[in-house]
Design goal:
Pfam families: Hydrolase. GO terms for molecular function: hydrolase activity; metal ion binding. InterPro entries: HAD-like_sf, HAD-SF_hydro_IA, HAD_sf, PGP-like_dom2. With 220 residues, the protein is α/β, with parallel strands linked by helices. Helices cover 44% and strands 11% of the residues. Strands 3-2-1-4-5-6 form a six-stranded parallel β-sheet, sandwiched between helices. β2, α6 and β3 form a beta-alpha-beta unit. The chain is globular and about 55 Å long.
């Protein structure tokens, strides 16, 4: 019986993907690496240190360690989100929707825990979540299902009883690998990516989810 919902964070609950892009381009520029928006999209959904490792192996910069670059990006994006991060359309609506249904609610993000906590405080939504998990503490990040499985365990939920909300192909793959019913809300420019067919449902906005759509998922 589906009674649990687990949300991704970046690009789904908070409009942070553009801020991640700016932070990455600014910090990478300090080591002589120029990343276009198209290149930053290539690593959407990965953990920060995996993104940095990916580009370090490609550009082989010197002067700063990958760890230092990683920390600078996290510091920068945290500051940007606190200064200008906005809730995604339908954020409070979807949280209240599942709260009213008595669903257990969790968050499973690739972002570091300190950034997650900063976002939850900034948006004032920490109270909605009974479990908050970061993939930074798992051996593998998304698209591996580890962070989703850890969050489900913390909620004492069977993965088969969970709905996962995601915005990226990487995150959707992780949720499906965890055997969760998966809803995707992609960014507008990604909505026609054929890979989203793997999801159980695709929406343009969190506001599009309702009782009728929940009933459809329960019938899967």
């Amino acid at each position: 019986m589906i009674n649990t919902v687990i949300f991704d964070m970046d690009g789904l609950l908070v409009d942070s993907e553009p801020l991640w892009g700016v932070a990455m381009r600014e910090v990478f520029a300090t080591v002589g690496v120029s990343l276009s928006p198209e290149l930053t999209h290539k690593t959407t959904g990965l953990r920060t240190r995996e993104v940095v490792s990916y580009w370090h192996s490609y550009f082989k910069w010197e002067g700063k360690s990958a760890e230092q670059v990683t920390n600078e990006i996290i510091d920068s994006v945290t500051a940007k989100i606190i200064a200008e991060g906005k809730a995604m359309e339908g954020l409070l609506y979807i949280l209240e929707f599942f709260k009213a249904k008595g669903f257990k609610t969790g968050l499973a993000s690739s972002s570091p825990l300190r950034l997650i906590e900063a976002v939850l405080a900034h948006l004032d939504i920490r109270e909605y979540f009974q479990a908050v998990y970061s993939a930074e503490f798992e051996d593998y990040g998304k698209p591996h299902p580890a962070v989703y499985l850890a969050c489900a365990r913390a909620l004492h939920a069977d993965p088969l009883d969970c709905i996962a909300f995601e915005d990226s192909v990487t995150g959707m793959t992780a949720a499906k690998a965890a055997r969760m019913t998966t809803v995707v809300v992609p960014e507008p420019h990604n909505r026609h990516d054929p890979r989203y067919a793997l999801a159980n449902m695709q929406l343009d906005s969190l506001l599009d989810f309702n009782d009728q759509r929940l009933t459809l998922l329960l019938q899967h």
